[in-house]
From TrEMBL:
<dbReference type="InterPro" id="IPR052663">
    <property type="entry name" value="RF_glutamine_MTase_cyano"/>
</dbReference>
<dbReference type="InterPro" id="IPR029063">
    <property type="entry name" value="SAM-dependent_MTases_sf"/>
</dbReference>
<dbReference type="GO" id="GO:0032259">
    <property type="term" value="P:methylation"/>
</dbReference>
<protein>
    <submittedName>
        <fullName>Uncharacterized protein</fullName>
    </submittedName>
</protein>
<dbReference type="InterPro" id="IPR002052">
    <property type="entry name" value="DNA_methylase_N6_adenine_CS"/>
</dbReference>
<dbReference type="GO" id="GO:0008168">
    <property type="term" value="F:methyltransferase activity"/>
</dbReference>
<dbReference type="GO" id="GO:0003676">
    <property type="term" value="F:nucleic acid binding"/>
</dbReference>
């Protein structure tokens, strides 16, 4: 949907915060860490699947780890579900499959593979990560733990699906603002609070990115049923993406993370070039991330 750095909406159940468009009042002030130099916990850490495969392990050693990890996941049973509605053994084994896909160069472990498997982290680190996942219920495999307790924003939330997903991951540790300019996306929701400059731990967005002259040629499933303001990104589809970059430069705190969806590789490269050369050196670790079809669809970065 259409993005805005003024208007926010969300679902209180998942610690999501929002503010109605045009309101002039503020609720209690938001607290955050200082915007001074990065601490160790704030420094950017590249996600596993984006790291180079600089480590290796034998097939037998990796299979031994995988069997150990499966047994550890199976030992959980329904304990986490009963405790706080956490994942059961089935969901944990699914997470383990994702971890294998992320950490191995080929995305799998099979008997047909060569004897040495290239990895993105060491085998020792894999044991540590999965032990922490089960014993400490930590999912630092997937995000920077230092940002978990911060304030996040889903810009142009639409139905709120992304914001709700992030809110469920953050649970009571962090909070997320869901914003949108379309009244139909927030009707019935309740105001909670707004944000301030330099306080966001993360910004995510699936903004309007379709070039204006492509709107008429969209599939009927999209063009007939989605609001035009949720699709039209201007002449080259970059209007909202560039607006997001400029806003993120001031709204993110040091070490803050951003992730934007684009129309494809051309927009991705344009956005990366802008962030690396025209954003005043604000961003670092800028990456193009492919979708499941292998198309460069997403851009991620950190605020210095």
């Amino acid at each position: 949907m259409r993005v805005s750095f003024i208007t926010g909406y969300g679902v209180p159940k998942f610690s999501i915060l929002f503010r109605p468009h045009g309101s002039c009042y503020l609720c209690r002030p938001i607290c955050s860490s200082s915007t001074s130099a990065l601490t160790t916990s704030q420094k950017p850490r590249t996600p596993l699947f984006l790291r180079p495969p600089t480590q290796s392990a034998t097939l037998s050693d990796l299979q031994k780890w995988q069997n150990w990890a499966k047994n550890l996941a199976s030992s959980v049973g329904s304990t986490f579900v009963d405790l706080d509605n956490g994942p059961d053994s089935t969901l944990l084994r699914r997470e383990l499959k994702w971890l294998v896909e992320d950490v191995t160069e080929d995305g799998s472990i099979s008997a047909e593979q060569q004897r040495n498997i290239r990895l993105r982290v060491s085998l020792e680190e894999l044991y540590k990560l999965w032990k922490q996942r089960i014993e400490e219920k930590t999912i630092s495999v997937y995000y920077n733990q230092g940002l978990r307790e911060g304030l996040w924003a889903d810009m142009g939330t639409g139905t709120g699906a992304i914001a709700i997903g992030i809110g469920m991951i953050l649970r009571s540790y962090g909070r997320i603002i869901a914003t949108d300019l379309s009244p139909g996306s927030w009707r019935g929701f309740q105001c909670a609070e707004a944000w301030s400059t330099g306080k966001l731990a993360g910004i995510v967005s699936n903004p309007p990115y379709i070039p204006s002259d492509h709107i008429s040629g969209l599939q009927a499933e999209v063009g007939r049923h989605e609001p035009k303001m949720a699709l039209d990104g201007g002449v080259n589809g970059m209007n909202d993406l560039l607006h997001l970059c400029k806003g993120a430069a001031s709204m993110l705190k040091p070490g803050g993370f951003l992730a934007f969806e684009t129309n494809g590789e051309k927009q991705c490269k344009h956005l990366v070039e802008y962030m690396e050369t025209n954003a005043g050196g604000i961003f670092c670790d800028v990456n193009l991330v492919p979708d499941f079809a292998g198309v460069h669809r997403f851009v991620t970065a950190f605020h210095k």
